[in-house]
Design goal:
CATH class of the largest domain: Alpha Beta
Organism: Paenibacillus endophyticus
Number of helices: 15
Largest sheet: 8 strands, mixed, barrel
GO molecular function: cyclic-guanylate-specific phosphodiesterase activity
InterPro entries: Cyclic-di-GMP_PDE-like, EAL_dom, EAL_sf
Radius of gyration: 28 Å
Shape: elongated
Pfam family, one: EAL
Number of domains: 2
Structural class: alpha/beta
Protein name: EAL domain-containing protein (Putative c-di-GMP-specific phosphodiesterase class I)
Length: about 400
Amino acid sequence: MRQVRDIWRLNGADNESTGHLGIIYLSWQLSSDDQKDSMASLQERWREFAEREAEEAFNSSLLYEGLQWVKEDLFIHMRLPTGKAKLLEGWLLELAHKHTTEWEQRFVEGLDKIASDSTEARLHVGVAVASNESNTADGLVWYEVMKKAILHGQAADAMEHSMKRRAIDQIICDRMIYPVYQPIVSLQKQGKIFGYESLTRTVDRSWFAGPMDLFLFAEKEGLTYTLDRLAREKAIDGCISLAPDQKLFINVMAQIMEDPSFSPGQTLSLLEQHKLSPHHVVFEITERNSIADFGTVKKALEHYRSQGYQIAIDDVGAGYSSLQSIVELRPDYLKVDRSIVQNIHLDEMKEHILYTLIQLALKMDISVIAEGIELEEELAKVREMGVQYAQGYLLGRPAPFDTNKL
């Protein structure tokens, strides 16, 4: 547990004012009502276990007020110092997550196999912090904080969700992502590097295993646009010296362009700061969901094109990237997904699919990029079929720009 003096330091308080009240709420809840007998037995064991663990963890803390059981719900009461409620809530979240995760794991491990198998209960955990301006902490004030903690802990994964939300807020605030660049090679000019795709990487993987997890969570939290803009800024900042004829491919979610707050002009000002121009940039449209409004996306792309940018559609042949997207958006490049390219020299059906995409691209004056090249045989096959550009580990792994440039 963080030392008591640290929580005071978080708030810049050197006195012993107790201006906030904090609650950690814990409750075992069944997914159904079929196993009430098993649940009663579990609750009896849990009460003994939880009281022992909570007292051991918090009894020496000057902030600890005590335990309260309301039926089968446990409330751990804390008196917190005066300060910013958000900082105090963050501290309490960390404290609760650390202890309750360990408690849940050890408690379940300590159950006999029959009890474990017959009980489908989940530990719900919630926290709440509220100002106590009067400093009296009467029963009504505690009751209001307890209600807030119950609301927070309604879902079994509420604690994990809150910790992830804090993590992504910190990532965005402190700009804790960085770009790496994977070369895209021309197959018609003896392996000359045509451009680089910028890929986002996370500094800390405590809560997000990688960029995909990060962007999926951002989408759920309504932070897609903010994170996407940060990734674009980082991509341009890190691309220090493109050759005049090289391209920088930047991933942009199609759904971003449907956002009313979307502002294409921000990218142009960034490029100007780095003495780059829009003709260097290809916006690589990624579809994590089907596009709801092609009209809005097309309008945004027309604005980009009028400034000199080019457009690519990513992951063609997989997921939501469809023929409709190609026809509606009229990109400059098709990036054929790894699922089509992998072992294409051994799979006649994949060869037919790629051939069809190449013919469509020729009719629409679109260049084709084969993604995910890992074998010499794959490279030879796509070159033989007339693909103009290729990308993959065989040709170069993602790396910081200054170490990747040939």
